[in-house]
Hints:
This protein is an all-alpha fold.
Amino acid sequence: MATIAPLDKRNIMFTFPNELPSEVSALDKRFLEDLKFLPYKTFPVNVAGNAATVQEWVQEVKIICYDLENLLQLRHEKFWVQIIHEKSVHDLLSSFLQKAPRSWDVWKLPMEHEELHHKLSKLIFLTIVRMSTERESKEDFLTPQGFGFAIYENFMFDIPKLFDICSIFGEPYGGNGPLVQRMLTNIFTKQNLYVDDLKTVVKYIFKEVFPNVITNFKSLQTLNGLYDLLYYHYDTVASLFCFFSTYPAGLSFFDHQELISQLGSLFQCLFSNIKEKVSKLSRPETDLSSLKTLVVRSELTTVRLINCIILRVCRMSDLENITLTPEEHTEIAETFISVLSLVLDDKKLMNIYYNDCNLPKTFALIKNSRATVGQESFDYIMHAIDIQHSAVDEVEKCDNVESVLDVSTTLKASTPPDVDVHELKGIFPQHTTDVLRKCLEFYNFNKNEVIDALLENNLPPAILKLTEDIPSSSTGSSAPLPPPSSVLASRQNVFDNDEFDVFNRDTRDINFTRIHLGKQTERAFRDPSDTQDFLERHEKFRYEYDEYEDEYDDTYDGLAGVVDGEAEEEDTFIVRPLNTTGVQKPETDHDKEGPSDRDRQFRGGQVRGGQTSGKGKHPIKKEKPDDKTLFQRNRNERNKGQRANHNRRAGADRKRRGGMIGL
């Protein structure tokens, strides 16, 4: 079988119109299909009463979906010809990645158009995935070098596009994180120039974009300008967070301490004075609900980006790996403490980090690992975090504007459900319901984390103090828990209310005599009276079973050697007749009547010729064989010894001489 060349090195003989046959590349532009694509447009906003504009948008989206389905159905070589040489494809992908709604957008698409837009998003994602795959089968593939050259030189992907792909389809909002991560890994592996572009873009964001945000924030004069600036910052930080959450390996290209320090400075400059800025620019009648939501999301996303960098750089997940040495665990713990100290001065940031990223659990993980961290540095960090956390919690309530923008009021958890508290109470009866409620609130209602903390005795100091203040016999001041619902009351079964349902029927109405354990006895299945009744009802089933399909062979009926009664000594060799079973009795005059009598006993009363012993009520008459059957039987008897070991008399004599009969 001939070896198939890669698509980027494959040449084929083809005759174009008005040309002679020639050898051309499989990716030649002249193979381009007549397939054009419309650019994506955002859904028309503020068009109340203008249904024509909305209908136009719907029709354009349907046309784009139809064209993308045709594109995805093309063969491998045709698909890559379109992707490389058709500019309208790139315009469509770029416009969708730039204008498609994100999960964090305030404005949402109308529900009646969500299904159509979801279909378009799926087709766009499938197209991007196919563009990032160089091998589809054994016959359809590109070389790694050819693939990297094609996607980079034809601008199929760039760093802003990769950021947008992660924001729409990747972690933590898109739901296709593993597939997008594999796609990015393939792109950065096959084309190293993307690594240099990533370094350049991230450096520009931290050196140019974020400082400009801080500068413009200080000179703002309107509330709308503040909203636009915060949304710009939020979109930028969210894009970075989605990219590094989906592709954590990208953080290995940067100095993590520099990134964390600049993010901490950005957070402090923007959000430490946000209340004063809003108070200065707003009026008492101004609606600040949308601004409040934007501020909270911006703060949380910035802190989560910092946490993403810390967890990736410090390799905190490796602390659970028991195969690592204590020195490696110590190095991880010390790196985490040193990096965390970079943002320790910002009270607001540490308060959000403490609540949203579950900082006590991280310290408990370090404490239970094999790391040998200096107790003084560990206590210093813990003491500083506790001071920062308690200082923010004890701040008095501010005026209306400040309370609206207070992050702590937004992050307050809801009341834990009584079902979870009831389950935890059954596992830990020594703790009160108030303590269990506090634990659920602290661990964001994650029962597994609460159980782990209670079993390992790693509760935070505030809850430990609560357990010491409240006696274990106290029932708490909370409302009584509802009784647990019965499983039988909510079950559904096909055997409900049948004659043996002991759960829904009175047991006095159930006939327990019809219930038995295991299989019934053989006697119950073979009752003679039942058989007799059956035969009386069905006369056609009365018959005698003939054990022998052919004429009975009496070859060995006369081979009666020494029987048990004639043995004088214990070691005397005994030969029993082959056509009898069990232990033989001494031969009597009755037994000398001939083999036919023994045959009658052995065969249940039936002898040759169809005659019976008289026990059966319906004897079966056997037809006399014709001459052809007799001739065939005689022939078989004469030729027995010619095939295999069928000479029975000679074989029997040989076995008898060797002592093999009667053992």
